[in-house]
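Data card: per-record layout.
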Amino acid sequence: MSKLNANAMNPINTSRRSFFLKGGVAVGSGLAAATAGAATLFDSSLPLQEQLAQLHLQLGALEAKAAIRQLHLVFSALVENQAYATVVELFVDDASVTMYGETFTGKQQGVRQLFVEQYGTQKAPALHTAFQQDQSQQLDQVSVSADRQSASATFHSRVQVSKPLTEQSVLAQMARQQGMSASSAWENGKFVVDYTQVDGQWLIRNLQYQQA
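The structure for this 212-residue chain is written out next.
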């Protein structure tokens, strides 16, 4: 079985590490800013017990948003490091994933088929192989339900998409002879995701990748 070239499949030093670390900083600064914003929403005219309940709700929502952002960073890092079996464990049993117009349904059927059987064996028409920090991430949004049992988010990113060289053209044959089995290019994309809590842990229910 051929493998995608090392630069395409494992650009950890130049992309994932930058994405993960910078993303982590963004999460931290975002949480700090949100906490400061929550203070301005705190209604001191309410009775003390109601003030405490209000503050508890606000802090709970902030913690949930931070956890969801971190979950997305973990998802991105696992995909880039080809830990596809672990990627599957980030989803609920009845999850669905939509990539380039094709939907995969069910954690152990569709989601595993996409990441383990197609990504893992490099038989997917297009594979996400790297992620980069991008200014578009300033448009990221996370929304948490009032009971903090479900959430939705939109995450923007620069995504490296690799496509296996399956055609029999002269150029493709020459590339394979030089050890290259895929072509890759960067594109702007976004993940539109729904989450749910299962036994206190945030998991992915629906994930869609869209070209931005």
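Known properties of this structure: Residues 6-211 form a domain with the Nuclear Transport Factor 2; Chain: A, fold (CATH 3.10.450.50). Confidence is low (pLDDT under 50) at residues 1-40, 167-180.

See the next section for split statistics.
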